[in-house]
Specification:
mainly beta, globular, 2 domains, nine-stranded antiparallel beta sheet
């Protein structure tokens, strides 16, 4: 094994399994930190109507974007599939919403089991295996016809990911697992249109797994990208912001050829909420470790306003270009790497 420099971060690296919560349902002191593989058991308890559990996946090719959500937010459960045809900007979506998350269940130990829902509007299965994740979705109706998806997202041997606990307090906290640069293959059909997802044509999956007890009001930034650098290396970007400020932890990292570099500082985000199709820039404020720009091509804007509950997000898909430096000190330049950036504003 090649020796690698220690990442420059104050955050402790967790090297073994640990429970997220203690016996009282509060944040376990030993859970504070980050790891290169999912180590935490998210044994959430207490926090009535504040617990959030979700699995999110997004697969991108040069022709389409397809995403999946399976979530339990305590007072409701939801599942969704969404397909974007990049050429026409047509969107097809199908989903369900169930009060009190009836029939929606996610395991404490992430990436270890299958989750599923069967409904007249949507059947969704996310099946986690040792070497791959298989996702199937079937919906009889959408704005552009029935939806059928069958995708396999590989887990390369030794592949590392960002797994981190964000501690607002010992009663409010979030464990998140962010995984990128995972090769994807499969098929997608919407109505009479069909697409092939081919890892050899730069198709990648990005995963966001969350388990936590949240405050009522929150805002976050999230950005992710997967692709090939100018020199052919595989580069993954994982950036977050706003919701982590003041916690002493970040969800910022690079994944270069499957190796994770943890970034322990808050990044500087420059973009315009009112004009989200303008470029988004993300950089390290006091170094040259990260300087990346997203050029958006599509804004997925969504708002749900139930007065007491409100969720609003601009998720902008496009291509990233720029330069990052891993913990080996070697710069990585990239152009036209597919990904997205978002801001979400929630009362939930």
């Amino acid at each position: 094994m090649v020796d690698r420099p220690v990442p420059v971060t104050h955050e402790p690296e967790l090297l073994g399994p640990v429970d997220l919560c203690d016996a009282r349902g509060r944040l376990h002191p030993a859970a504070r930190g980050w790891s290169r593989t999912p180590q935490l058991r998210a044994n959430l308890r207490g926090g009535p109507f504040r617990k959030k559990r979700w699995d999110y996946w997004c697969v991108q090719t040069d022709e389409i974007v397809v995403s999946f959500v399976y979530a339990d937010v305590d007072y409701a459960g939801l599942a969704n599939v969404w397909v974007l045809d990049r050429a026409t900007e047509q969107q097809a979506t199908a989903g369900i919403l169930r009060p009190l998350a009836r029939g929606i269940s996610l395991p404490d130990q992430v990436c270890t089991d299958a989750v599923s829902v069967v409904d007249r509007a949507l059947t969704l299965v996310i099946d986690e295996r040792d070497t791959y994740t298989r996702i199937t979705a079937s919906a009889p109706a959408s704005a552009h016809g029935p939806i059928e998806v069958d995708v396999r997202i590989d887990k390369p041997a030794g592949h590392e990911s960002l797994n981190v606990v964000i501690p607002w307090s010992d009663r409010r906290f979030q464990f998140t697992s962010k995984q990128n640069t995972r090769p994807a293959t499969g098929t997608v059909r919407v109505g009479d249109r069909a697409w092939t997802i081919d890892a050899d044509r730069d198709a990648w999956g990005v995963q966001d797994l969350g388990r936590g007890i949240w405050p009522y009001r929150n805002r976050w930034n999230w950005a992710a990208a997967s692709g090939r650098a100018v020199d052919g290396r595989v580069v993954g970007l994982q950036f977050g912001g706003k919701w982590t400020e003041g916690t002493g932890a970040t969800e910022n990292a690079l994944c270069i050829d499957g190796h994770l570099t943890k970034i322990g500082v808050e990044l500087e985000w420059t973009y315009d909420w009112e004009h989200p199709m303008r470029p988004w820039r993300v950089r390290t404020p006091d170094s040259e470790q990260v300087d990346a720009v997203l050029t958006p091509t599509f804004d997925r804007y969504d708002v749900t306003d139930l007065k007491v509950l409100k969720m609003e997000v601009h998720q902008c898909f496009g291509t990233w270009s720029g330069r990052v430096v891993g913990d080996d000190g070697v710069p990585v330049e990239f152009e036209g790497v597919r990904g997205f950036a978002e801001e979400a504003r929630n009362r939930w």
